[in-house]
From TrEMBL:
Transmembrane segments: none annotated. Residues 3-274 form the Aminotransferase class V domain. It comes from freshwater metagenome. Pfam families: Aminotran_5. Belongs to the class-V pyridoxal-phosphate-dependent aminotransferase family. NifS/IscS subfamily. This is Unannotated protein. Its cofactor is pyridoxal 5'-phosphate.
Amino acid sequence: MCSAAEHHAVLHCVENLNGQVVEVDSTGAIDVAKLEKVLQDPQNAGRVSVVSVMAVNNEVGSISPLRQVAKVVRANSPGAILHTDAVQATCWQDLREISKLVDVLTVSAHKFGGPKGMGVTMQRIGLEIDPLIVGGGQERDRRSGTHNVGGIMATAAALRETDSTREAEILRVTKLRDALVDAVISELDDVIETVARDKRVPGIAHLCIAGCESESILFLLDEAMICASAASACASGAMEPSHVLLAMGVDAKYSVGALRMSLGHTTTEQEIDRASSALIAAVNQLRRNKTAPRVSASK
């Protein structure tokens, strides 16, 4: 069981196992009341083995109410394993607090400055899960295979640095994100912030722009050497409708012009100025082109 706005790495697994997908609210966070109703369905009694709810949505940045989720799961399916995809949370939330609420927590190193291809799985002591990879018995029999010692050390170093600088980075990046969004909204009409600022993490600025298509905006931003995406960063080249925005019920007038911009420890004020100017210019150009009268070719 998972939410409708989970990353495809989780959502597709649940769908392939014919599991249940729970609705989300308008922010993209799981609807706790709907989760409780599904868990209390007599047909699900004693049958729910795993509930997976992401800590932070990877596309729009909404923060999940994990404390409420944990309470509902423990009360209604005490035998279920509660997993959280905390990949987007590491830079913005204390994993110590999240780990207290769940049985399994997973993060990916490249999201906090570590090497690509590395990750961490936290598993509650005493919890037994059959491994997918068996053989040498490494990782306490949880995942066999020769250790990538360099990758492990680099991941640990990046995680320590992220943890020690988190509070300062939250303040700094929040100011940058707000400056970016404020600059765009002050200059362009019919642009909405997809999720309220107090409901999402600082590192994601997600906007929905009426009168433009994401693909066209991304093309012009790319020409201006600005990196952005229409959905999650790992699907930046995909032009199909976002399953997250569909689950949230975002009006198609706005969802076709969805834009996701990520900020982090390398982001500077100068980059924010460049990005906002480039985005404003791109949208104005596209809207002018759309309203310009067409000239028929002479024979």
